[in-house]
Amino acid sequence: MPSNEELLAELAALRTTDLPTRGGRTLAHVYDSGLPCLDGLATAAYSAFAPVNGLDTAAFPSVVRLENEVVSFVARLLGGDAATRGSFTGGGTESILLAVRAAREHSRAVRGVTEPELVAPDTAHAAFRKAAHYLGLRLVTVPTDPSSCVPDPADMAAAITERTALVAVSAPSHAHGVLDPVAETANAAAERGVWCHVDACVGGMVLPFLRRLGHELPDFDLSVPGVRSLSVDLHKYGFAHGGASVVLYRDGELRRHQYFSSTDWPGHPVVHPTAQGTRSAGPLAAAWAVLRRLDEEGYTELAATAIGATEEIVAGINGIDGLRVVGAPAATLLCVASEHADPLHVADEMRERGWFLRTQLSFGAHRRNLHLTVTPATAPRVPELLSDLADSVRAAAALPSPDPAPDLAAAVAALDADTVSSEDLASVLDAAGLDRSAGGLPSRTAPLLALLDGAPTALRERLLTELTGSLLTGSGL
């Protein structure tokens, strides 16, 4: 039997292969406040409540107080009032799933909708597609302008029908960091008696503080008439540990449609406020501690640091030949187009220089690009980031196209996503450079991503499923 020390040492060794979660060089997946004091606080709070089961508030009344205080704090920031109700969830996807479920149930109960639809811009987070898939709604997507990356409010309004259970907008969109037309869409929804949800998962804990700093922003939250629910992640710019989000509702009657309860079995009465049953109260306690530690003053200071870094990066990118920022960023997310060098190569070059930038594949009129999530920890590294980015663009421009060879591209184009076998898909991935025996992705992912980029959407999704399944085999112990 291994000792505690041996097991912890093994875990520490495994972490050496991961991206750094602190230091400001990972511009995706992680949100770094740059404040070392928060890590110890959040981890200690998490540890103290990790054994507590957040499912049973009768057995663990501490959960009631923690959740009420967290939800109240967030609601005050985002246009809530005394009637506002909410729930702490395990992440933005769960918050969105719950809001979609509540809207679906509400549309059935109040408007008699039997074939529900979900209307959203084509830039809406994939969580809405997941929610529609899981919950049996037909997804209606509204195209966005390739320059501004936002939908026309008139198009959003025209997509709303008698079957629409929910219309969704983003503040800002994750892909491009731009604000959707929230007020116009919410008004059009309200005129038809339709639920409007605002996905503020990435912006909800930064936009209110930018406004306090004097940035002019259109109304986007529960203060907007017609907005019935809103999601906001605390593990993003709330700087809590992962697995922390809040979904807000204008009132308790709307939230009621989120809950699931059952006494139709011989066991104990069941009520699940969220999608989870048993859930650790650790993430809730960690989020509560970080919110209390920073309070509104601390978040305002962090927002000032992050937006200052973002503005410096935007100015620097505009000075690099062949790069441009896409759309009008509302906060601290940037989408960057690369005209002379393939962005997939640029990302690989940046990875070799110690940075991680997310790549986004083409979609309709939107071309593949780079995505940067700027946090306060990046601020002192901006000059280094821009210098390495310029070098990476020059190096990438000298490389051959990462697109697959014509014979491979033709073979992929001939595949039918509905009938192709897993074996054939594995062969395609191998041809694109995936070495499954290595247990991870290749160090340079441009050829693999370019293969995905050239495939139809349905085939992309099959390839991604095959890729993930080839890595997660369940072996190891």
Question: How would you describe what is shown here?
Answer:
It holds the Pfam family Pyridoxal_deC. One of its GO terms (biological process) is carboxylic acid metabolic process. Its cofactor is pyridoxal 5'-phosphate. The model has no long low-confidence stretch (mean pLDDT about 95). This protein has 16 helices and 14 strands. Among the domains are: about 45-290, 3-Layer(aba) Sandwich (Aspartate Aminotransferase, domain 2), CATH 3.40.640.10; about 405-470, no CATH class. The strands form 3 sheets. Strands 2-8-7-6-5-3-4 form a 7-stranded mixed sheet, with helices on both faces. It has a 5-stranded mixed sheet with strand order 1-13-14-12-11, covered by helices on one side. It has a two-stranded antiparallel ribbon with strand order 9-10. With about 475 residues, the protein is of the alpha/beta class.
Short overview:
With 477 residues, the chain is an alpha/beta fold. It contains 16 helices and 14 strands. Among the domains are: 44-291, Aspartate Aminotransferase, domain 2 (3-Layer(aba) Sandwich); 406-471, no CATH class.
